[in-house]
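input
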Amino acid sequence: MYTFGIVLIIVGILYVLMLLLKPPFLYNNIKVKTMIKMMGKKGFDIFFIVWTILVLGGGILIVTLVEK
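output
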């Protein structure tokens, strides 16, 4: 479980980088374009921020609660 928590933290950090840099390969993906069309640009950004917080929070929670 500890390793899973570390992986979640790493994925969360990558999500934060994607939020800050907004790479074209993410926003040109057909699935992302469909989500943006359904939710709007601001709605997609809010969804991505909430998802990032959940992943980072879950990883930190797992790491702090589980011993090595």
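quick obs: DSSP finds three helices and no strands in the chain.
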